[in-house]
Amino acid sequence: MSIFVLMKIGSKIKELRENKNISQRELADSISMNQSQYSKIERDIVDPRISTIEKISKALNINLSDLFFSYQATNNDDNLKENIRLLEKLSNEEKKSIFDLVKKLVAKK
Prior knowledge:
Blueprint: E1 4-6, H1 9-19, H2 24-30, H3 35-42, H4 50-59, E2 69-71, H5 78-88, H6 92-107
Antiparallel strand pairs: 1-2
């Protein structure tokens, strides 16, 4: 069984950016965003759009799934990996619908 840690996405973006020794300004510039607005994403003040998340993942050269989950790999991860691969194939609108649904489900708990 996998152990999931769902993080605030801004904090995760900051962690991954810092691990790659990229400044906020460099990343903001690479995705054509004002540094001030980008900083708000990392501080979890604003929720980025799916299209922005995709740009950030490309700029960091990581999979979209790396921004959402940290997990310890086990033998049962094949199902999870397949679901993430399927998610990455969806359109921005479909991804937004799924993430909105997940947020609603989590908020009910």
